[in-house]
Structure formats: C-alpha cells, structure tokens
Amino acid sequence: MSTEKTVMRGLLTLMLALPLAAQAALAIQHWQTPQGARVYFVESRELPMLDIAVDFPAGSARDPAGQSGLARLTHGLLDQGAGGLSDTAIAHRLADVGAVLSGNFDRDRAGVKLRTLSSARERETALDILARVLQRPDFPPAVIAREQRRLVASIREAEADPGSVVDKAFFRALYGAHPYARDPDGEPAEIARLTRRDLVRFHRAHYSAPNAVIAIMGDVSRADAEAIAERLAAGLSAAAPLPPLPLPVAPAASEVRLPHPSTQSHVRVGALGIARNDPDFFPLFVGNYVLGGGGFDSQLLKEVRDKRGLAYSAYSYFAPMGVAGPFQLGLQTKGEQTDAALEVVRTTLADFIAKGPSEAELAQAKANLAGGFPLRIDSNRKILDHLSVIGFYRLPLDYLDTWIDRVNAVDVAAVRDAFSRRLDPGRLVTVVVGGAR
Amino acid sequence: MRGHWAIGMALLIGSAQAAVTDVTLDNGMRVIVKEDRRAPVMVSQVWYRAGSIDEHNGTTGVAHVLEHMMFKGTKTIAPGEFSRRIAAAGGRENAFTSRDHTAYFQQMQKDRLELALQLEADRMANLVIRDDLFAKEIQVVMEERRLRTDDQPQAVVYERLMATAYQAHPYRRPIIGWMNDLEHMTAQDARDWYARWYAPNNATLVVAGDVDADAVVALARKHFGPLPARALPERKPQAEPEPLGEKRIVVKAPAKLPYLLMAWHAPALRDWEKDREPYALMILAGVLSGNDSARLQASLVKAQQIAVNASAGYDPVGRGPAMFLIDATPAAGKSVAALEAAIRAEIARIQREGISEAELARVKAQVIAADVFQRDSLFYQAMQLGEHVIAGLPPEAVARRVEKLRAVTAGEVKAAAQTWLKDQRLSVAWLDPQPLDATPRAAATTGGRHVN
Asked: Would you say residue A414 lies in a domain?
C-alpha cells in the first residue's frame, strides 16, 4: 500500500490513541470564493479519484405557492442539456471518462455530485460538464415537456407503494400550511403548468454563488481545490442568500387513515422535531438510539418485533432539517394487527418520554455510537457527505472532531429532560395507510 | 472428509490492488483476507454455501428463516446477546440470504475482529432454536415478505417471472419463500437446515480492512479451527432443460403504471480464464443501460419517449444459471406491447449492426473508473470476493475482471447478442395494473437479496 498518510487516517489514528481526550482536528479546510460560495475541502491522496458536491437551498420547500414541483423539475433538468450540449452529449462526455454525475434533492437541499478519476484528462472533462450543468442549464422546451411527463409518471407509480403514500401523508398532516407539508415531487396539476421561464427564474434565484456550498474530497491539492471551487462559483448568478424558511407550527393531535389495497398497513406516528443546529440534538439523538434508533438494542424493535412478532421493521428517528424536521416512529404490519401495533408504539413512546432510558441502556447507546464513529468517516463518500451537511447547515468545523465527546457527555437526566420538553405524547400525529387486503 | 492441511498462498493479484490472502484451514473452512489500510476499520463476513438454491419444495424460504434464527441464541449466548455485544463494541452487523448463500457480517474498528470471530464460531456450531422464539420470528419473516414482495407489484412480477422462466432449476423459487410454505414452516425445518449446512467446510470467512492477514488467519484458526468438518449432502445440478420456446405471463396487481420484464436464459461464468461470452454480455448490458448515455435510456426514454424508465442487467457470477434482464415502464399513453416491440427493435439492431467502437470504448472507460471507485467501499470489496468464492471462482477472477472486460471486442458483443438474446430463450411478464381502490383481493405472492 501507499506509504502516504492521509488526513483521514491521521485523524483516526490519533483518535484511537486518545479515545477519551479531545480529538485532533479532521483537517477540513474552509474558505469562501470571491463570489461568496462557501468551500469545504479534505485532501486524501490514497485513491486516484475526486468527489465534488455542490448544494443549494433549492429543495422543494422553496417552491412558490401554486408551483409545487418547480424545484424538483429545475433540479432534474440541470444535466438534460447545458452550455450548448444536449442531454445525450453530456451523458456521452461523462461516460467517455468514466465519471458519474448524480443528484440529491430533498425539502431543504438540491445538489449535484460528481465522482471522477483524478487524472488530468478525466478530471478536466468531468469538471467542464459539472460547471456547465450548474451554471448554464439550457432548459430546452422539448426536454422540459418530457421531464414533466416522467415526473408525473413517477408520482403515479409511487401511489402503488404504501410506504411512499404514508410518508407523504405524514408530512401533510404534520406540517399543515408549512412548505415542508408538500410532496417534494409536486402536484401533477401544478407540474403541468410550469413553464421554461419559471425554471430559468428559479435557477437564477437559487443556484447562485452566495447560496452555494461546495464540498471537495479526494486526490487534489489545496491550490487545485481553490481553482476548482472558483471555476464552479464564477459562472453562477450573484443572487443574494435566501432568507431562512418560516418556522412550522406544532399541530394538535390527529389521526388519519387512508385506504390502500396493500396487505400491510404502514404506520407513522410523530411530531415536530428539531433543526440541524438545535442544542438538544445530542441528547435527542443518543436517547433515540434507546427508543428506536438502535436496531435490536432499541425498545421499539424489542417490543414490536422480538416480543410480539408484529413487524419486520420498527424504528424512530429525528430528521434534523433547516427548520424543525420531523420526529417519527414507523412500522408495517398486516392489516388486522394495526391497532395492536399502534398501541405498542404509543405506550413505548409515552413510557420513554416519562422515564427516559435506564443507565444500562444509555451506556449501551453511547458505547455503540462512540465506538462506531470511525465507521461514519471510513470512505471518501461518507466524508464528502459530512462536508456538505456541515457546510449547508453551518455546523461548526470541528463538528466531527467533537462528535464523540458530545455523545459521551449525554446522561440519563439530559435525555429525559430533552424528550420531555420536545415531545408531548398527547399531541402526536398518526397516519395509517393500507392493510385492506 | 474435506479437511486438508492449510495451504497459505498469498496471491498477488493485479498491479494496483493489495494482495488477497486465500487460506483453507484443515477443517475445510476457507479464509480470505484483503488488507486495506485507508481507515482503522474492518468488515468481517462469514459466508455459507447454502441459499435458496439448496431448498426443496414445501420448505422454501428456510435458508432465510434460519438466517433470522441465527440471532436467537446458542448454548452459551442468550437470545439477542450476539447483537448486543457487537453493538456494545461499536459494531454494525446484519446478515443477508441470497439464492446461492447466506452471509453474516460485522463492521467494526479494526481491533475488534476477535469478538466477531468468537461469536460467529460459536453460532456456527452451537445454535439453539427455541420453539417459542421460532413462532415469533416466523411471523416477522411473513411481515418481511408482505413488505418486500406482496405489496410491491414489480417484485411480484419478478417472482412470478422467475417461477415461469425456470421450470426445473431451483432458481424458480423465491428466496424469501412462498407464503404458504412460511405458514407451515416449523422450528424443526430450521434445525434440519442448520444441521445440514452449517459446518466449517461449507463456510468462507472474508475479512477486509486495516488488518494483518497473518493475524486474521491465526485468529480464524483459533476460533473456527476446533470445529470439526462434517459430511455435506450431495448437491445435484438440477440443470434447467434447454428452453423450447418463448414463455409469457400477465400479472394483475394493484398499481398505477404497467411494467415490463424480459428475461433471457444466459450463460454463467464458469471458467473465468477461458469464458468470453459472459464478459461480452456484461459489456452489452453496459451498452444498453447503466447511465444516460446508454441505448435504452437514450433511445426509448429520451428520443422515442416511449418509456419513462428502462434498464438492462446481467450478473454471470452465481452457482446456478444466469439471466439477461431488461425491465421498463411505458410512458403515459404508450402500451406495454409497443414498448416491448421497441426494446426488441433495439436488440435486433445490435444483432444486425453490432455496436460502435465509440460505445465499446465508453463502456470500458466506465468499467475502469468503476473499479477505482469501488475501492472506496470496504464492504463492497468483501462482497465481491465472497460472491465469487461462493460461485466457485477464485479471488483472482475479481482482480482480473477489468482486464477480461477490456479484452472484449465489438464483434464478440454482437455475436453474444445473436446467440443469447433469442426469442426461444426469452420469458416475458407484463404487469396489468389493477385499480388501487378496488375491492380487496387475495394476497399476491422475488429475488434479489433479503437482508435480515
């Protein structure tokens, strides 16, 4: 193997040597391009490859009223014709050098990821495409029409999947009038009305340099990374940073049951959770390991699956987002067992909020999370994703370095305190889909 | 018995890749180690050569049920204790059952391998299957079947098409098992399966990561070495008879969009050094599908706009026969029949005109790059080794895969398409969508991989 010592390995070696002490820095380098794009970079020379992710606050929560699907469609069109190259030409140029361009899209973020070999010809070709796609999407009318139809088709197809139906219904019930309530794909009738002009304007306002977060991971020098970031940022619009999303309002307790011809009912129970930068993040995250995040260690899976055989999967999690993301518990069970399973879920949650974890349960949670931390940063891909999240949600640069200490600092009282303040068992939103067959 | 003295042969494979150590213990258990020191972690996988291919009618799904019961305690480890100990050590663990194998894995910091091996060796020999725990777990497995198959129309189509395309070979049976077999499965069925197949001479340990190969072999010898080899049942080939004509089925299930799945009986990779056609068919799959530049996407989705999705797949690595698959979803207002005709036209064009040198070079460039990209994932590297070994292929076949693919010519791709993508070898399924708000109907009843 190479004798070159990577940044990643350096960190981990130190961490293992000093498991309880303050960690040495994962060398995340951070700067702003002259255009205002924020850059996060980790150099790693062991594999001859380069990963780049560029994210914007251009997720579905940014859809204007009556134009749901605009963010999704704009994102989907980026690589379907750009900088004078057709969709097929873009695909061919990337494939010719073995590069892979992919997209990520959710309620908060829209992003493009590039993975390429780091050798000069491959890298140059791939970066040229990435720059065109981000900066100069052509939005050809015929392609827009095609992608509108494909988007509607995928929405229709998802209607056959009870898991997808319950997910959408849960966000609707939980978020009411807030933009997170909408299906990120949009509503077919509104998608059909979107025009090229809408896409162009959305792109210009959201995919701007001051809104951009550029993560770079892999086989390039700092000087090359700076040049790459500036090249990507230089052709973006200068539109000002977007304002934060409005804060959601916690709903009253509710229960929705939707028919679906599935054999199983899909159950979701939840409430508003936390934003990414919430000070309660660690007590809730570590505590949730015991409640429903820790697989076979978790109370939910023990109660629902091990003791009763009611479901294959049962879980809970906080999904931290730009503003309060959801807290949700979920399971799937054959129709006639729905009420029994719901009862177990509600009782388990209420007990946990009232009592918190035992000392032994919490010790197990911390041992797994802290001891498993190296698995969270053991590949270029995982580190790249961390860089994007740190940048997009403005987490501190030492977020990964202090992660283990912050997990270890959580105690039973902190979990109980955080859960009791943040979750009210009398104000849960429940959605059940299917189980009719 | 199959025991023979350990042969420590470290094969130096490929130029860019680290050495793979391949050792057989004297009880017949194989140990494969790939050192990769990028991060201070490792993955350990124990592969048993026992999957749904080894099952019999009436107890389909038992390989996967046993996989679930492997977490339910041994003579000395209480039910659930295996998972609790691995979790306490910061590990992630799970298992998966396939047609060809059942495999169990742990991902952990590098210095915690011994815990994993100690626990795996224990459950290889000392599993206890309690009736009461079995009764609960079989319910869990039936829920898993409902979740992954019964309520997923495209999974139902795959399951039914495999049951049609294969008339004799055991690949016709779904990995998760038919529901009726699950309903009638007993704890004794699981015990019998365990007694039949869970022996060191039917197992391969694959470890990848920041480990020392000699130290891994020594640990494996310490923990697995004392387990005795056992006689394994004879495995009959159960070869699929030569197909005599196209087979077609219609699957009616609640869904919004129709769906098309086409499957051609195709060659598996057997002699990895001499076989050429499997590599040519892998290139063909890359020409047809895999990214936006490939033919199905470029022609059917973008140019003709007759499909909203279309893809091709072919995996020649397996104990049994292989299939070349194409699936597609028609665009709104287009019929499945028209879509099938368009796919057939694409294939006919390759059979008639072949592929261009540019296309060939493009697919090879992707193969070469993907080979580098895959090294970013330890787990994937270990998976590849395990799958090849289970299929009877050496680690060297993994290391030299790129070289073999680079040697494929455009002429070989055309010839392979002509030879293998014939109607006589084809089975076709159409999904006929039924209204989602229709009255309840009887539960429908796949392949792929079922994770824990």
From this structure: yes
Q: Rounded to whole angstroms, what are the CA distances from A389 to A55, A267, A396, B341?
A: 9, 29, 11, 46
The parent domain of residue A152 ranges over 10-234
Domain boundary among A234, A264, A297: A234
Domain annotation covers residue A31: yes
Looking at the structure, tell me whether residues A75 and A188 fall in a common domain. Answer: yes
DSSP single-letter state for residue B37: -
Chosen from A3, A46, A263, A336 to mutate, greatest number of chain B CBs within 10 A: A263
Residue B45 bridge partners (DSSP): B105, B206
E strand spans, A20-94: 29-32, 38-43, 49-56
pLDDT average, residue stretch B189-199: 98
Please, what is the average pLDDT of chain B? 93
The pTM of the full predicted model, rounded to 2 decimals, is: 0.93
Render pLDDT for B357-409 as a digit per residue (tens, 0 to 9). Answer: 999 999 999 999 999 999 999 999 999 999 999 999 999 999 999 999 999 99
List residues bridging with B328 in a β-sheet.
Answer: B260, B310
CB-based contact A56:B325 (threshold 8 Å): no
> Each residue of B288-324: pLDDT tens digit?
998 888 999 999 999 999 999 999 999 999 999 999 9
Say if residue A108 is in the same domain as residue A151.
yes
pLDDT at B292: 86
Instruction: Identify the residue among A375, A376, A380 best suited for mutation to test binding to B, counting B beta carbons within 10 A and taking the highest.
Output: A375
A&B contacts, CB < 8 Å? 221
Q: Residue A107 is encoded by which pair of tokens?
A: 């309620």
pLDDT of the residue at B291 = 84
Residue B18 has pLDDT above 90, yes or no: no
Is residue B2 included in any domain, yes or no?
A: no
- How many Å apart are CA A388 and CA A46, to the nearest integer? 21
Q: Are B48 and B150 in a shared domain?
A: yes
Question: Can B67 be counted among the known catalytic residues?
Answer: yes
User: Using CA atoms, how far apart are residues A182 and A176, in angstroms rounded to an integer?
Assistant: 9
Domain membership of residue A4 (yes or no) is no
- Give the minimum alpha-carbon distance from A279 to chain B in angstroms, rounded to a whole number: 25
Three-state SS at A332: strand
DSSP state of A246: P
**A121 Cβ under 8 Å from any chain B Cβ:** no
Q: Which A residues in the span 209-238 are in contact with B, Cβ-Cβ below 8 Å? A: none
Query: Is the CB of B139 inside 8 Å of chain A's CB atoms?
Result: yes
